[in-house]
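Table S2 (continued). Query chain:
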Amino acid sequence: MFDISHTPVSVTIAHMAELIDSVAEANHQVLGPIINDVTQFHSRAIPTISVHDYLERVAKFVCLENDSLLAVLVYIDRITRAQIHRPALAPSPFNIHRMALAAIV
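Corresponding output:
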């Protein structure tokens, strides 16, 4: 069982990155690269840094606690609910890093 109040932030980041990666990759497999409808979150190429390493790096410079990371997941979920109206908002390897950063700030 995952007890967020007693779990180290690095472990929460690892779980969170695994979840985000799996969702982004599944969407990428289903939707493919969306080239006609890009958002402000999209990058031209898939970043070479993994989501896990990216979140660890951000956590090094920003005071991220487990409750903040939980809020990041909620914000990403809210952003992606808009994918019903705009499929380009589905998390993918092209946009998940920027979505996570936007959710953090």
